[in-house]
Amino acid sequence: MHYKKYQNNNKMSKAYGKWYLKPVITAPLSTSDLAQIIQSNASVKESDVVAVLKEMKEVMQTYLGLGFQIHLEGIGTFQTRAASTGALTSEECTPAKCISRTSVLFKPEVKKEGSAYVKPLLKKLTWKELTDYTKPKSDADGGGDEQNP
Fold this sequence. Notes:
By secondary structure, the protein is an alpha+beta fold. The protein has one domain: HU Protein, Chain A (Irregular), CATH 4.10.520.10. 23% of the residues lie in helices and 28% in strands. It contains three helices and eight strands; from the N terminus they run ββααββαββββ. The strands form three sheets. It has a three-stranded mixed sheet with strand order 2-1-8, with no helix packed on it. The protein has a three-stranded antiparallel sheet with strand order 3-4-5. β3 and β4 form a beta hairpin. α1 packs across α2. It starts with a strand and ends in a 20-residue tail after the last strand. The C terminus is likely disordered.
């Protein structure tokens, strides 16, 4: 994982002048990208992986919509969340009037290893400072992704 260093320049902040690290996303991975990687690591065709991932989305949509919590071993748990505004009466408190926002909450799995708690998804995380802090040109700017993973 690449990171950039930045300094807090907000003079009103208690942390003014302190330096921080900010993770930098190297590049997005699509379903197709993941399928190709899984195909090379397992004895499954890319098209089969894509079909499973697409069906997984459909199943997760259905069961999250029914109020289930979905746990994927070694990965974590997904569940729905909603923000609600208040109503003066019970009759006025309906989903159409009171639910202001819905989202999916992901909680990574945590396992105890000895005296420490670890998140299996982050076991291979290593940090490396990004040497070029310039923003890469987007395809819209006429350039491609200039950063290498």
